Amino acid sequence: MSSCDGASPNCHFTCPRGSKWYACSDEPHFVGCCTSAPCNNATSSTCPQSDIRPASFDGALFDRIRPNNCINSRPDYWFTCNFTDPPFLGCCAINPCANGSCPLEELIPAAWSANDPDQYDLFSDKKPTTNSTAHLSSGEIAGIAVGSVAVFVVILVALFLLIRWRRRRKKLPSSPQPSKVSGDWYGMYSLRPQGGSPK
Questions:
Q1: Cβ(79)–Cβ(96) under 8 Å?
Q2: How far, in Å, CA of 36 to CA of 20, rounded?
């Protein structure tokens, strides 16, 4: 069996053997480890007290986990303990961070805060989709489109200038041509022998 059995899809949240990680979308928004299926419970949508198990999490997520709720209990029973072994996440009637863990009889059903839907996304821990554009906002897509058009226009202008430059270059002579002097002008500049007068 893999170490992710019963864990969240990306193994960021883990449960003891025999239980499974749940993040229920329906009220009361149960989140945690349970031996039954709380999200399918039509009457209460929570894990019965006897089925709750201690939940753990990847310590790298510690700063992203905010205080959430405890079902039918005080919210100050919510704990996120990064330094226990394993790290603890959920609701407990005693302080598991100070005690090192939360005994089964002290566990309280936990819920993600409906006031902070990002917590549900975090706890759902969905695997990324293979379609990379699924995560792009319409603003990002528009930015990519405008940038692509701008690059295309720059390339067209560069090609136009290159073609124009080559045409002008072909019209100019490739090497200087010697100038020819004809007729009377030639005699004017010819050298006469020195020393005698012409006959």
A1: yes
A2: 8
* Residues written for the chain: 199
Residue 125 near residue 8, CB atoms below 8 Å? yes
Q: What would the mean pLDDT of 107-131 be, rounded to a whole number?
A: 83
Q: Is 50 exceeded by the pLDDT of residue 7?
A: yes
Domain borders along the chain are 13-124
Q: What are phi and psi of 163, to 5 degrees?
A: -65, -45
Please, which pLDDT band fits residue 190 given cuts at 50, 70 and 90? low
DSSP H stretches of helix in the chain: 96-99, 117-124, 138-171, 184-188
Distance CA 188, CA 24 (A): 109
Residue 6 carries which DSSP code?
T
CA distance 165 to 106: 83
Measured CA angle at 31 (ends 25, 35), to 5 deg: 110
Beta strands in 105-170 (DSSP E): 107-108, 110-111
Strand 78-81 to 88-92 pairing: antiparallel
Q: Kindly report the pTM of this predicted structure.
A: 0.59
DSSP 154: H
At 161, give phi and psi (nearest 5°).
Answer: -65, -40
